[in-house]
């Protein structure tokens, strides 16, 4: 792993005991598909720069506290254009809004896809933050089987800095057809 200088695509589903050194090896990836586990949460606190990352697929398939590791990844991915989130089975987390607006939000992020969005408070706060600070945002697609009309209205009423961005909705099963989860 240490000699991998330039990775294009990395898919990480289970690593028994990852550490900061392991995560450093992934820092050159352009596409990173990360299945978050408790052991992975522990190593997501180092200041590793994902300088080439343009596409992040962030999946929680176990009940882990996902928000802090996601924010860590986002703050350290200055060229991120596509963010895909799947918060399946995750508990609610506390939100600590970053003190500065990360570079990817202000100048690069174009697409956000969120599978199994439930409208929990932490999800709403993150979505509000993304919409309010993403100048280049073109599309936000929410995949959910349980999205209520009031939640859709709430999403649509969130302030957006990118006036041309679109909010799109679909059921979670349609996500499989759109991209392989």
Automatic annotation (TrEMBL):
Domain named FBD: residues: 103-170
InterPro entries: FBD, FBL13/AtMIF1-like
Domain of life the protein comes from: Eukaryota
A Pfam family of this chain: FBD
SMART domains: FBD
PANTHER family: EMB|CAB62440.1-RELATED, F-BOX/RNI SUPERFAMILY PROTEIN-RELATED
Official protein name in the record: F-box/FBD/LRR-repeat protein At1g22000
Lineage start: Eukaryota, Viridiplantae, Streptophyta, Embryophyta, Tracheophyta
GN (gene name): LOC104781379
């Amino acid at each position: 792993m240490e000699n991998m200088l330039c990775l294009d695509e990395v898919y990480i589903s289970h690593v028994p005991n990852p550490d900061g050194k392991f995560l450093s090896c992934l820092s050159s990836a352009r596409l990173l598909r990360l299945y978050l586990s408790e052991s992975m949460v522990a190593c997501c606190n180092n200041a590793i720069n994902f300088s080439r990352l343009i596409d992040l697929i962030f999946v929680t398939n176990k009940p882990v506290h996902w928000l802090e590791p996601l924010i860590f990844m986002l703050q350290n991915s200055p060229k991120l254009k596509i963010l895909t989130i799947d918060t399946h089975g995750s508990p609610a987390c506390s939100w600590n809004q970053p003190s500065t607006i990360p570079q990817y939000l202000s100048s690069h992020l174009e697409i956000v896809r969120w599978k199994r969005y439930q409208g929990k408070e932490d999800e709403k706060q993150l979505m509000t933050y993304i919409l309010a600070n993403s100048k280049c945002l073109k599309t936000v697609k929410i995949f959910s089987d349980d999205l209520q009309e009031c939640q859709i209205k709430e999403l649509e009423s969130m302030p957006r800095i990118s006036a041309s961005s679109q909010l799109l909705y679909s059921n979670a099963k349609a996500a499989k057809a759109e991209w392989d989860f």
